[in-house]
Amino acid sequence: MTFVFLSFKLVPAYVRLLRDNEAEVRIAGAGKVTKFSRILSPELAIQHILPCVKELSTDSSQHVRSALASVIMGMAPVLGKDATIEQLLPIFLSLLKDEFPDVRLNIISKLDQVNQVIGIDLLSQSLLPVIVELAEDRHWRVRLAIIEYIPLLASQLGVGSKKVCGGHCKFIQCCLIKNFGEGLLFCM
Description:
mainly alpha, 77% helix, 0% strand
């Protein structure tokens, strides 16, 4: 009975809210996509919620995209490795390149949630080039968030990090030193 209620009543109602004409409603809905997806089966989340997530990731309101960016990384464990790689990763990458810094900051602050699902090798291949770009972002808060993320990334890359990271890590370090000075080395 519960599954039937979710499938035929609650899911369509939530999808309508995610597609509401009012940005404030979409903001509230976007901020709950991960929590809502957790009560669904991965199949239902992929079939009904993920298409809305794709739409919200290009919403005309930066606040909707920011709300989505603050929770979307939490969908990775819900959807699993394959759906995350095939469907969420392109959304993450597009949000990391969003024109508004708050959207980028919200994604950066949750990157560790994706590492656990897709693995650090794939993450480094797909996200390191974007992280390199963000290390030179025009907004200092984005560069600062990259500084805070690098120790976690480096620890997850582990001993083989030079092989996985290639020249990217050295380049990021140089960009960050250029932006924040030599004192940064004490933090890393």
